[in-house]
Each structure stands twice: as C-alpha cells, then as structure tokens.
C-alpha cells in the first residue's frame, strides 16, 4: 500500500483492491469534505473531560455510518471495515452505560462466485451398477 500527501493536505491511500475510484457521485465529494472539516474542528476543541454521553453517541453513530458508506466501495473495503461496529459498540458500553446499541451492521461482502445449490431433499447419492 502506498501513502502520500495530496495537494489539499489530506492523506491519500492507494491500495491494490481498487485500481481507480473515478469521479465522485453528485454531492459526495462536497459532503465528504464537510465531514472531514467537521471532524477536524471537533478534534481541535475536545479534551478528555469535555465529552457528554450524547456527544459520544453522536460521534460513534457518525463513525458507524461512515464505515457503512465506505464499505459499499467494494468487498475489500467491507472486510477492512467489518470490525468498526463492534469497536464503536465497545466504546458505547464503556463510556455510555445503559446506551441502547443500534449500531448499523456493515453488510458481508458478496462473493463473485454464484451460491452453491443443494441437491435437494431425498437425494440418496449416485448409484452405479457394476
């Protein structure tokens, strides 16, 4: 995996799974940039004692939803992000006792291979005469 700096000061990671992402869909790039800017602003103002239960819930929800959105890129992205819901659930359990856990689940990656088909009920095996 190669890493480098882009012109905007954001880290760009180029991996083997996605050769080229192409153009962003309508509004995607602007919204992703707004999220990144908001996170930078949050990081600038937080301190260990400045979190509330509601703020932790909101931040954990944002992490879950971002992971879900990024997991839709391809199966490798989904596998890389599969641990995020469990991590945010553990964070909620530790920091927000009694919080209802409704973390979105990252869908399991789909295999390129068609699903296997069963032989059906009543199949008795191959009979040979000999």
Show unreliable segments: 1-17
Give the terminus-to-terminus CA distance: 58 Å
Number of strands: 2
Give the overall form: elongated
Going across the biggest sheet, name each strand in turn: 1-2
Task: List the secondary-structure elements in sequence, H or E.
Answer: EEHHHH
Number of helices: 4
Give the integer mean of the pLDDT values. Answer: 77
Tell me roughly what share of residues is in helical segments: 40-55%
Tell me the fraction of residues in β-strands, as a range.
5-15%
**Rg for CA atoms:** 22 Å
Structural class estimated from helices and strands: mainly alpha
User: How many strands, which pairing sense, and closed or not: the largest β-sheet?
Assistant: 2 strands, antiparallel
Lay out the secondary structure:
Elements: E1 2-5, E2 11-14, H1 28-45, H2 53-71, H3 75-81, H4 84-95
Antiparallel strand pairs: 1-2
């Amino acid at each position: 995996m190669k890493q480098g700096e882009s012109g905007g000061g954001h880290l760009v990671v180029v991996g083997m799974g996605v050769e080229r992402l192409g153009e962003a869909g309508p509004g995607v790039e602007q919204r992703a940039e707004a999220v990144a800017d908001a996170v930078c602003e949050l990081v600038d103002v937080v301190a260990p004692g400045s979190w509330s239960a509601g703020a932790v819930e909101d931040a954990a929800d944002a992490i879950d939803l971002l992971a879900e959105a990024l997991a839709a890129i391809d199966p490798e992205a989904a596998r890389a992000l599969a641990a995020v819901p469990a991590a945010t659930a553990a964070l909620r359990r530790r920091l927000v006792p009694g919080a209802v856990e409704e973390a979105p689940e990252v869908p399991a990656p789909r295999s390129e291979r068609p699903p296997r088909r069963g032989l059906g009920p009543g199949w008795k095996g191959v009979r040979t005469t000999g």
